[in-house]
Structures are given as structure tokens and as C-alpha cells.
Design a protein that fits this description.
9 helices; alpha+beta; 27% strand; 4-stranded antiparallel β-sheet
Length: 303
Amino acid sequence: MKPVIVVHGGAGTIVPGKDEEYMLGVKQAVVSGFKKLQQGGSVVDAVEEAVVVMENDPIFNAGCGSVLNEHGEIEMDAIIMDGKNLETGAVSAVRNIANPVKLARLVMEKTDHVLLTERGASQFAKAMNIPEVSGESLITEKSLLLWKKPIDYQQSLGTVGAVAVDSEGNVACATSTGGMPNKMLGRVGDTPCIGSGGYADNFSGAVSTTGIGETIMKVTLARLVLFHIEQGKSPTEAAETALKYMLDRIQSQAGLIVVNNSGDYAAVFTTDHMSWAAVKDDQLHYGLSQGELHTCSISDVPL
């Protein structure tokens, strides 16, 4: 089996004229993550690398480009999970850090905990020599406009995530977000919550979700998808079943990417759009709207 990696750039409704930026962003992220696998990196290395690329891209609501809370400040959440041993690291409401997913990985590897939040996460970052950046450096013009003139949350898509499986069936996931525009101080969404924003288990597969965190948490969406895979469903069937349950039960839309331990993947969403890209059998697949699927060569993507 050849390695497979899939990324998403958030579910919702894309503002007209921004589709090319979202598509380029996810394509660059998935190729960067795939190259990490080619260079001998682990699946955890690959999903971390893909998410870092998107955290550094201001088009996405993660890292630089994160939306602002009610006070005009950035608070970010992230999770990473290794399906081999179910090791997990997450951070919530973190500030002044360019790449929250890197801090989440350090929580996983350097502490006995799963989730660190706000001040504790900041102290841990300093102890791990994670560079501190100014909050202003992470704020974009788009985020300021969203804060000053609130719109439908689903139009401010951009939560990012990645899932991967290697040739031996090891899986991993990572998800990172700036959260919801104009959220209350200290609000934490689904992203850093294990089983909601992401989950990875070598016995089944890996999932990263995107949407309104409050509703995703109510159905523990990531773990729900893997439950259906454990019942024998394909990644597409499992994703569609879980998203339909969410829509029927609490009338909420979402999106997700999933890969199973055999290398089959799906990118499924009930929103208008979700930018996504995947590398399988050395080919790049990507899409944005419902039913959209394009294929190109990895070498076509500028890095």
C-alpha cells in the first residue's frame, strides 16, 4: 500500500473570488505533507507539516489569519493524534504562537497530559522554547473586517486539518483553528476535543472535522465516523452516515476528511463548500464544491 494524505481548509461558504486561494493553499499543504512521508517521516510528521503550511497561510482561519474574539484578540485551538498508540496532544485558547499544532505535538510527546489551555499552554510553550510572536502579527485584514462587521459564521470558513496513512497502516490526524468570529473570551470549540475535532486509531482510520464546534461536539463527529468504519462501512459511507445523523439530529452542517487503515479516503461535507486535497497513488486530487473532483500531477503544484 502506498501512503495517502488528505487535507481540508474548512467547510462553509466561500466568498466569491477566493476559491483559487483556498485551492492553492490546500494543494500546497498536501504536497508538503506527502513529501515529508517520501523523505521517511512518520504520519504524525506528515499531518503536522501539512497543518503548519496552512497555519502560515493567511487565507485560512488558523495560525496567521485566525479570526478574532469579542475583544479583537486571537485565541487558537489545535489537536494532533497518533493512531498507533492513541497518544494525543491538544491546546486551547492559546495566544502569541504562530503554529499551535506544533505546541499540541509537544503536549503529546513531552507531558503526561492530553490538553493544555490558555495560561498553562503559554507557560509550557515558553518552557519548550516555542518563539512568542505578537498578537498583531497574526491578525489579517480579513479577520479585522469579520470582527468589525460580523457575518454568518459559515462564510468565515478556514479551520484546517490533515489525515494520513503510511504503507504499514499507521494513521494520524491534526486539526487547527482560530475558532468562531466574535466568540466569547475563553470559548473553546471542537478542534482540541479528542473525538470531536479529530481522532486517529490504527484499528480503523483517522478523521479531521470542520464546522461549528458547538454542534460537532454534540455528536463527537470524528469518533462517530470511525465507529461506522468499524461497523464495516467505507470511508465515504461512514462520513455520509455521520453527517446525515448530525443534520437530522441537530440540524447542523459540517465537513470532514477521513482515511482508513487500508488507504481509502473521503472528503465529505454538507455545507456549500469545503476546500480539500489528497495525494493517493502519487496523484493529486482536489475539490471545493459538492461533487467537484479534479486530478493533477504533484509536480504541477508550486511550493
